[in-house]
Write a structure and sequence with these properties.
heterodimer, A: 327 residues, alpha/beta, Rossmann fold, 3 domains, five-stranded parallel beta sheet, 10 strands, elongated, B: 464 residues, alpha+beta, Serine Threonine Protein Phosphatase 5, Tetratricopeptide repeat, Heat Shock Protein 90, five-stranded mixed beta sheet, 62% helix
Chain lengths: 327, 464
């Protein structure tokens, strides 16, 4: 950071709005080099043309029809699939519940709502944005460790809502194997629990209050990732934006929507993805069209390597290594 | 039906034993009927067997399959008995073979075209599959329906299928009944896709309407879009489908309203956020008096609008430690010319974990209500008094006025929306309802203390 000024690409479809002009101004004053674009297409073009430390994207729902690249979350997914350490911050006054969940699951670095403020520190949304950009340009991401390779074969199920308990247990065993041990605690017991003794943490609760005790417990759970990997589930309600974004900004491996009746299947899939060193969709679903457009062709042998991952997300090795390949 | 083909001789005329076999079957004694027909099939002599025609095999194996079905479902309605299932399938297979053969050899014969046996057997197969093969019956069911269609034509099989779908739709005690109904509907749509559109337009659009209905009530995030897609498809093949038209209209209208609200929220959010950032910008400039005071005033006004906006959207509380006394004292100047206040408790910066905006809305609404009561009852300014007790260790705030008290008739209903003791013109009657809403979001509650003071009202706010 000291040798050069970090470069930011800022995309917003309302370049003249007060909040955007002020945000850009504050970023520049703080020493960041900011390039500004108004459409998703330009943001994608810029991604290929120049290195940026951080991308700030608006959700931009107004131009979806005109902009074939879609909304900010779709572009986030594309960027992450091309390089899984790309730092993308969504900065938007729009966005729906689906966007918040999708953004968390596509590993946005942060999601800052334009109207949010931090009631504890009194920061307004621009100050929060600035803090997140600073963090994104200085923090080195944690190493991604595969769940179940180094970790103990134990899952901690947190929440204590009986409705979620049985389906979650079935999903965990189906994804990881019957031999995985499941311990269950309530959220307020997190403080007295040794979380690193587990291979994965699964926290399922209808809603989360923004009370300090709840936030501290959530922060403690999310801070231990990626070892153990953390999967959180809550109901996607518009009213819960603050707590949902609180979770999204602390980088869960997956954020599951519990109002979706298929959540147990999604949990199962998420646990399978977590067994990879980063997560299957993230490393395998690279955007081939986008790569082709800029004349990048992946070498054949890479494609073959990708095929080596079986449905359980385990790498099948050559015969001599077969004993480590798992079932 | 071709009436010129003479009917084959009845089975009992070939083998009188058949009468005995039929007796328990006719009485509905299926365990005995099954044992009897099983024994009969195993012991019938080659001489008799040589005289059997397809017609007789069809009769025997219909009897066999129906008995096996009833024994299976009566003995254990929920769990499959594998041996019984195999026996049923074998009997059914023999029944189908006899009819297939006859259709090839004597296409004009009347008996195999009488589809009553086939109808009930297909009905039984579907019932057994739905009962005993949860989650994995679809392919099997479709292939049985296709076999029945190949012999008896599409009408019979599709009618049975539709009936099964309707039955399953109201079979609310079966955990998978919604998924099962959807799958049966999907099979129906697949099988009728290439059939003459004129004949199947109406039932196909009806099935699509049912799929729309089922999708709509799942309540998932895509439910509405999925429901809309089905009615669109129904209208594409049957523009006269009134249900589909109405459902499409309803969904589109709702979507339109939701989109409007979303846009309004977005615009309001952007506008408020823009104003806040402009104010922050202003604060960084060196302003001369009274500009800083005015900026602060605008900031508080904006905060209030933002708070109301959040309350209307029922947004969850943002809990922080609030210095309650400071919040109260910030409000009082607007009222102090007309009312005297006595505030006790909450000294030394004592805090309460709550949402600043919502707490402001609660206190402000209660104060405004009290002022209106004083005015309404024309109580002289010199006598007006409000006690505010901040019992923060007890997570409680009390507000007591001497404005004459609440009309006893309204006492039980004052927190309901649109209930007001004031003239309609003056207020919407949403004040106390908003207070209650805000207290709920604060995970607390508001109550009238009991008993109420002699000449006024007292509210207790409980915080968790």
């Amino acid at each position: 950071m000291s040798e050069r000024n970090p470069k930011i690409l800022f995309m917003d479809d309302e370049p003249t709005s007060d909040i955007v002009t002020h945000a850009v101004e504050r970023l520049r004053t703080a020493g960041f080099v900011v390039d500004f674009v108004e459409t998703m297409s330009e943001a994608i073009e810029a991604y290929y043309q120049k290195y940026y430390d951080v991308f700030i994207l608006d959700i931009d729902m107004s131009h979806q029809a005109a902009d074939q690249e879609g909304d900010g979350v779709k572009v986030l997914k594309r960027f992450i699939s091309l390089h899984n350490q790309t730092r993308v911050i969504l900065f938007s006054g729009a966005g729906t519940v689906q966007h918040w969940f999708q953004a968390a699951n596509a590993h946005c670095y942060a999601y800052v709502h334009k109207l949010d403020n931090d009631p504890t520190t009194g920061e307004d949304s621009i100050e929060i944005l600035l803090r997140q950009v600073r963090a994104a340009t200085t923090e080195i991401g944690p190493p991604m460790i595969p769940l179940g390779v180094l970790a103990p074969t134990k899952v901690l199920l947190i929440g204590g809502d009986s409705e979620f308990d049985a389906p979650a247990r079935t999903a965990i065993h189906a994804a990881l194997g019957e031999d995985w041990v499941i311990d269950a605690i309530a959220l307020d017991q997190v403080h007295t629990t040794e979380l690193t003794a587990y291979g994965a943490l699964v926290l399922l609760q209808r809603t989360f209050s923004t009370r300090a005790t709840v936030c501290e417990a959530l922060a403690k759970v999310l801070a231990v990732a990626p070892q153990p990997q953390t999967l959180i589930g809550c109901e996607g309600r518009d009213q819960s934006r603050p707590s949902i974004l609180y979770i999204a900004n602390r980088h869960p491996f997956r954020l599951l929507e519990l109002s979706d009746s298929a959540w147990p299947q999604r949990l199962q899939q998420a646990l399978r993805d977590a067994r990879l060193w980063y997560g299957k969709p993230e490393i395998f679903e690279a955007d081939m069209d986008a790569l082709r457009r800029i004349h990048i062709t992946l070498p054949e042998d890479i494609a073959v390597q990708w095929e080596d991952f079986d449905d359980d997300g385990l790498i099948t090795f050559d015969e001599e290594d077969a004993e480590v390949s798992g079932s | 039906m071709n009436m010129n083909t003479p009917p084959p001789p009845a089975l009992h005329t070939i083998d009188p034993r058949w009468q005995e076999i039929l007796a328990p079957f006719r009485e509905g004694d299926y365990p005995d009927a099954l044992a009897a027909v099983r024994d009969y099939v195993n012991t019938v002599t080659p001489e008799v067997r040589n005289r059997f025609l397809n017609f007789h095999y069809s009769n025997i194996y219909n009897n066999y399959a129906v008995s096996a079905y009833h024994v299976l479902t009566d003995e254990n309605p929920l769990q499959l008995n594998q041996a019984g299932w195999d026996e049923f399938l074998q009997a059914l297979e023999q029944f189908i073979c006899a009819n297939e053969q006859e259709k090839k050899q004597q296409p004009a014969a009347a008996w195999w075209q009488d589809s009553r046996f086939a109808t009930s057997l297909l009905d039984h197969v579907l019932d057994l599959l739905l009962r005993y093969r949860p989650g994995q019956w679809v392919m099997e069911a479709e292939s049985w329906i296709r076999r029945f269609m190949a012999i008896w034509g599409e009408r019979l099989a599709l009618d049975v299928l539709l009936k099964a779908m309707h039955n399953e739709r109201i079979n609310v005690l079966r955990p998978d009944y919604v998924a099962n109904t959807r799958n049966l509907a999907q099979i129906y749509l697949r099988l009728t896709e290439t059939l003459p559109p004129d004949l199947y337009r109406h039932p196909r659009s009806l099935v699509m309407d049912i799929l729309s209905d089922l999708a709509y009530f799942t309540g998932s995030t895509q439910a509405e879009d999925e429901a809309l897609e089905w009615v669109e498809q129904a209208l594409a093949i049957n523009p006269d489908d009134r249900f589909a038209r109405q459902r499409r209209k309803d969904i589109q209208e709702r979507k339109g309203v939701m989109e409007q609200i979303r846009r309004f929220n977005h615009d309001a959010n952007t506008a408020i956020a823009g104003l806040i950032s402009t104010l922050t910008h202003l604060e960084h400039l060196s302003l001369s008096d009274p500009a800083p005071t005015l900026v602060e005033k605008i900031r508080l006004g904006l905060k209030r609008i933002h708070g109301v906006h959040r309350l209307v959207q029922k947004q969850e509380a943002g809990f922080v430690n609030v210095v309650v006394r400071q919040e109260v004292e910030r409000l009082l100047p607007d009222y102090e010319e007309q009312i005297r206040f006595v505030v006790s408790g909450g000294e030394d910066g004592a805090t309460l974990e709550t949402d600043q905006d919502y707490l402001q809305i609660v206190l402000e609404n209660l104060l405004r209500n009290a002022r209106e009561a004083f005015d309404r009852r024309q109580i002289p300014v010199s006598e007006r008094l409000i006690h505010i007790t901040l019992d923060l260790p007890g997570h409680r705030i009390l507000l007591r006025d001497n404005a004459g008290g609440i009309d006893p008739n309204l006492k039980d209903r004052i927190f309901e929306p649109y209930v007001s003791s004031k003239a309609v013109k003056q207020n919407t009657g949403l004040g106390l309802a908003s207070v209650r809403e805000a207290m709920t979001l604060l995970e607390g509650r508001i109550e009238l203390t009991d008993p109420q003071p002699a000449n006024g009202a007292e509210f207790a706010l409980y915080f968790s």
